[in-house]
Model the fold of this input.
Amino acid sequence: MTKSTDIQLPSLPELEKSVQLFKAFGDQTRYKILFLLAEKSLPVNEIAEIVGISQSAISHQLKLLRQTGLVRGIRDGQKINYQLSDRHIFTIFEQVREHVREKSND
Done:
């Protein structure tokens, strides 16, 4: 059995990065963007059209998502397609969706 004194809290940098990640998930517009990008890679104009807000507002949200490491842009000629940055982000997103679905059935 582990004593409570054996439990190590995350380091301050790890704690700050983790909190920023959860904050990024905590906005409805960013969540919608992540939802779309979990399905496929998309350019800003298509994300804006689907979400129903301006391209500049989407660009701002994408900047925040890039800063937290949740999404990345891949240049395709003149446009940039955005996608989830790696498999971990997809897994986190899918786990959240699964958790919400299960809890809504309780």
In short: The mean pLDDT is 92. The beta strands are 42-43, 71-76, 79-84. The radius of gyration is 17 Å.
